């Protein structure tokens, strides 16, 4: 089973320039995408970066990743057996390329073919019950036997049970830190053994030690790369529920394993089912639900975002900035309320982002950084 | 909270005659209803019974309950503190009166006001887990505190846990045998204590010892009297799932309590949720779902079934009988295929029933008894 044939291959220069861009200050995946749409390629974007940030009101010029530093990262990756791939390239998980904050470059390691196959995410509590662990194992094994790749977060509990049970068929670990900074450290052996038939992916540079906020960010890779995610056990307000929310926002299927109402580890999964997640008692429930999705062609909607090349009218810029605040607002509302052209609004927002003054949220919302 | 004001009161004679009718051979609740529609009142029905059965091809005349025997039953009931009430009368559970096989006379005992209040059925395994019992208790207590009457089957396990936890607020036991033949015998004390604030109901005569097939039949009283039923724990192919199916057929809400997929006692409830039952983790889930139903007026659709008074054309009768077999067929199909009038078809079917040659199923289906 292959998910989609790859279509593009970057030149070495373009890959290097994209790496410089995404490793520069104030540039996350969404800003990267906006910049590429505005400028056409990474070289032009790097050239125009200082001017755009200045227009956005940057107090001081933001750090731009040097060519030297990017080359050093590529060399280190190469030595560590890690490749950096862009959306649309071979070994970039095809479904992950469709999300609106797809990593511009994904660091991949292992038996990379596995990344082109249909994936199912399995996530759940770190302090899982015996029943939860046992179920995660049998589910992962059955999905693996049916030809699906299990993707998870290499954490203690449900994650590692799912990885271990699907080692032979190929399993993918999405890392919150760099490839050389495995968390938790005692799962380094598990990671090495899964690379034989599976792979590890990360959007972080080598050497990056995962911090608390990197984990929810990493979770979007699990749901984004997968057809759907299964939450095996989850208390209220747990990390697995964040993954479920992301899966929902990304249009992925959400599956949840039921449990007794008097077991707090089932509170989150039972709630998910109440909210519309599909109840799962065996792999067949998942396979039946994703088969029609696999049968549909994957179409990446290329947004026809326009950016204005000309210098923005100062009155327009002032009106747009005045409409922004710390509460997220819709881009469409900004266009309507400011009376400026969509191209002008997008350009002003990009400039503000590069100046470190704007945050992008999901669903086309933006807010000013206080 | 009262469900609906009562509207009718039977005369002593009519009650006696209805009792004779329902205690006669070949007359179940559906045949009783057909007879009453055909004949207008119980006295006329008793009078016409032999003739109708003869026309249906009865080999020998079926036993008709004597006036003496019916009087004896009424006397015994009176001594035992049991009243016999008909649909539409005070203390006949209003929603139970709406099902198409409502008991023509229901034997009721205890604090009868409770039978007019909104009920929720709680059912589940006899060999329930500790978690299941604990959950059934807290659910029954919370529903009771919220003003609902818990109705169940007095069985071991979930049933008794639900009754015990709702004793103070009033709980209803639906019996499969007569009021003086409590099953299981060790729950006689529980039955007596629930009569203080609650009630017991049965459609069987005093002295009747419940047999296996009486239990599924009794289950329709639990679901029929209730706004909805909650299945707490149920293995595949268990009696509680029969109650859930009946609830569905009766248009009642079905609620199910989830459990771990590796617990066989949750297999039935998880399946119910997959099939559309509402997942329940607390009483609020149930109350929210039934509130809009309670707000709707209860309307008993009086069918405008016609019966032919004249003797049936022998050709019509032969054609209708030829269309019948051991597989259930729809009444509507019989009318269409036979070319006879609906009144004629209904009359022939009633005659066959009274001759003990026809079985009525739910959904307007009938079959010939081989």
Pick out its properties.
alpha/beta, 42% helix, globular, nine-stranded mixed sheet, homodimer, 370 residues
Question: Layout of SSEs?
Answer:
The structure is a homodimer of 370-residue chains.
Chain A: H1 12-22, H2 29-39, H3 42-55, H4 67-80, E1 83-85, E2 106-110, E3 119-123, H5 130-145, E4 149-152, H6 158-165, E5 171-174, H7 188-194, E6 199-202, H8 214-225, E7 228-231, H9 239-249, E8 253-256, H10 267-274, E9 278-279, H11 283-295, H12 314-323, E10 329-330, H13 331-338, H14 342-354, E11 358-361, E12 365-368
Parallel strand pairs in A: 3-4, 3-7, 4-5, 5-6, 7-8, 8-9
Antiparallel strand pairs in A: 1-2, 2-6, 10-12, 11-12
Helix pairs in contact in A: 1-3, 1-4, 2-3, 2-14, 3-14, 5-6, 8-9, 12-13
Write a brief caption for the model.
Chain A is an alpha/beta fold.
């Amino acid at each position: 089973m292959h998910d989609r044939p790859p279509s593009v291959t970057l030149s070495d220069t373009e890959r290097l320039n994209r790496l410089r861009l995404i490793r520069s200050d104030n540039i996350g995946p969404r800003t990267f995408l906006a910049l590429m749409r505005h400028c056409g390629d990474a070289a032009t974007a790097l050239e125009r970066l200082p001017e755009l940030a200045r227009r956005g009101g940057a107090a001081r010029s933001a750090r731009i990743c040097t060519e030297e530093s990017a080359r050093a990262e590529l060399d280190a990756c190469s030595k560590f057996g890690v490749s950096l791939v862009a959306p649309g390239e071979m070994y970039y998980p095809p479904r992950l390329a469709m999300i609106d904050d797809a990593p511009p470059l994904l660091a991949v390691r292992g038996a990379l073919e596995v990344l082109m196959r249909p994936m199912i995410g399995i996530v759940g509590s770190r302090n899982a019950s015996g029943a939860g662990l046992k179920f995660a194992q049998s589910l992962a094994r059955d999905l693996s036997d049916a030809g699906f790749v299990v993707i998870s977060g290499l954490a203690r509990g449900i994650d590692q049970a799912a990885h271990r049970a699907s080692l032979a068929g190929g399993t993918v670990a999405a890392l919150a830190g760099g490839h050389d900074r495995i968390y938790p450290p005692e799962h380094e052996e598990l990671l090495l053994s899964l690379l034989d038939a599976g792979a590890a992916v990360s959007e972080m540079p080598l050497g990056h030690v995962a911090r608390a906020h990197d984990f929810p960010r990493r979770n979007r890779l699990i749901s984004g790369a997968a057809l759907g995610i299964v939450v095996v056990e989850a208390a209220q307000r747990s990390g697995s529920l964040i993954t479920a929310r992301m899966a929902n926002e990304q249009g992925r299927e959400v599956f949840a394993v039921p449990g007794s109402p008097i077991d707090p580890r089932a509170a989150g999964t039972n709630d998910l089912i109440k909210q519309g997640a599909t109840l799962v008692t065996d792999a067949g429930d998942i396979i039946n639900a994703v088969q029609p999705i696999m049968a549909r062609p994957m179409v990446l909607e290329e947004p026809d975002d326009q950016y204005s090349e000309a210098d923005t009218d100062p009155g327009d810029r002032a009106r747009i900035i005045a409409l922004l605040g710390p509460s997220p607002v819709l881009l469409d509302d900004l266009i309507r309320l400011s009376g400026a052209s969509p191209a002008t609004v997008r350009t002003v927002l990009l400039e503000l982002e590069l100046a470190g003054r704007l945050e992008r949220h999901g669903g086309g919302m933006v807010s000013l950084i206080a």
